Amino acid sequence: MTSKPNILLFFADDQRFDTINALGNKKIHTPHLDKLVSTGTSFTHAHIPGGTCAAVCMPSRAMLLTGRGLFHIEREGQSIPEAHTMLGECLKQEGYTTFGTGKWHNGKSSYARSFTEGDEIFFGGMGDHWNVPVYHFDPEGKYATQSPFIKEPMKTNAVEYQDCDHITVGKHSTELFVDAALKFLSKRKSENPFFMYVSLMAPHDPRTMPKQFLDMYDPSEVELPKSFCSGHAIDTGALKIRDELLAAFPRDPEEIKRHIAEYYAMITHLDDELGRLLQGLEDRHELENTIIVFSGDHGLAVGKHGLMGKQNLYDHSVRVPLLFAGPGIPKGEKTHSLAYLSDIFPTLCDMIKAEKPETVEGRSLLKSINNSEFKTHDQLYLVYGNSIRGLSDSKFKLIEYASGPTQLFDLLEDPEELTNLAEQADKAIVLKDLKNRLIQERDKHDDLKHPTGEHFWKQRADLN
User: Fold this and answer.
1) Helices marked H in 244-391 — which ranges?
2) H/E element holding 174?
3) Dihedral of CA 454/460/462/464: which sign?
4) Contact 348, 333 (CB under 8 A)
5) What is the DSSP string of 4-50?
6) What is the DSSP letter of 394?
7) CA torsion, points 305, 251, 130, 103, in degrees to nearest 10?
8) What secondary structure does DSSP assign to 77-121, as a single string?
9) 198: closest CA among 214, 185, 217?
10) Which DSSP string corresponds to 132-162?
11) Closest to 434 measured CA to CA, from 384, 404, 389, 374
12) Rg of the chain on CA atoms, in Å
């Protein structure tokens, strides 16, 4: 047994917080995630702060990998400067063999800095799950090969080029990445502890998966969300972007049911692949000495509030699953402590007794893991682009739109965020307090120094 525990970070794309059976969604089949819930500690109120662009996954992953806040990463996370110590770099310095596979949306040089080994590396945001353009690991970190393809062969013979050195035709992305992780385990000879970053493209659209998983969900039996409506009444600044165009306007109940069925089927498939990887760890007698972290880069509306995407501040889009399991982690515990994804980095540092790099801004969640009543954060600042700002303290959530409206939700009484209390006279004091705290958090997070914040606060000068 190694002196330090191994670490597996299994990271989903688009998976929201309420998609695990053991945490309350009895309509979805997730036996392996359920087992992690029973053998570890679950954060029921883990969040992203939002994002500064429509591709929310890009800044979200940059925050995860650097432990830095939304306005303290470089631009929107397209690349990560050398000055920002990354999780993989930190663990390498602690003697870990670091392995990365799957989606990497933050630049080739930052990947090369992070990992000593890897395979099936996807430098992109989304793509065809059955034909993923990927790279084998390059020890020199160049990843310069480009492969020709014709994007629309029925319309043109124009040749385009995509970043990759191979494509495994007909193998689903989730299986491709888990196979790479299992191959790494089977060939591992080093006595050093390992860090495996398995970063999925699922359940991001195009939502497709092996047929046996789709057959588990009958769209006619899917329940519409309580917040389903024909369209979102407030201008979010993102009502006509790609994500929202995945379903017709006005929203059709039967179409939304189909989307939900496909979403659940993709999650059940990734759960199955997680189980295969965990079995691989157990077969190699590594499981008992491995810290397992499961989370996702953001949530997704899939019909809630008349929306389809993640470009908003409702819980379905900013709350994510976050599970910790492994040596020393309490079993079967749940904590409602607020958390950001950027807190994972310093938490792992605490768990392996490593010094947190100076550039990491997140807070360790270890006290909340060991004491479910401990609050790591009292409140969270929330952002979308230049059009929405918000604040959540677990009890109330304030959402302000550049287009003018204010929303106030009582999250304890109204977890689906159905009833806007902003105009109710008895909530005037609460509303004033939240608005004051919103300004404080704005300044604390340096929102005004970012172009999106500068634009938003000019539009809503009335909040100052």
Assistant:
1) 253-283, 315-318, 344-351, 366-370
2) helix 173-187
3) negative
4) no
5) S-EEEEEEESS--TT--GGGT-TTS--HHHHHHHHHEEEEEEEE--E
6) S
7) -30
8) SSS--TTS--HHHHHHHTT-EEEEEEE--S-HHHHHHH-SEEEEE
9) 185
10) -EEB---TT-----EEEE-S-TTT----EEE
11) 389
12) 21
Instruction: Please return the burial class of 67, using the count of CB atoms within 10 Å of its CB with bins 0-12, 13-18 and 19+.
Output: buried
Type of residue at 109 = S
pTM: 0.97
**Residue 420 structure tokens:** 């806007």
Characterise 95 by phi-psi region: left (phi > 0), alpha (psi -120 to 50), beta (else): left
- Could you read off the pLDDT of 143-193 as tens digits, one per residue? 999 999 998 999 999 999 999 999 999 999 999 999 999 999 999 988 899
Task: Pull the structure tokens for residue 145.
Answer: 């090969």
Q: What is the pLDDT of residues 339-392, one digit of tens each?
A: 999 999 999 999 999 999 999 999 999 999 999 999 999 999 999 999 999 999
CA distance 59 to 125: 12
Distance of alpha carbon 12 from its chain centroid, rounded? 6
User: Rounded CA gap, 56 and 263, in Å?
Assistant: 18
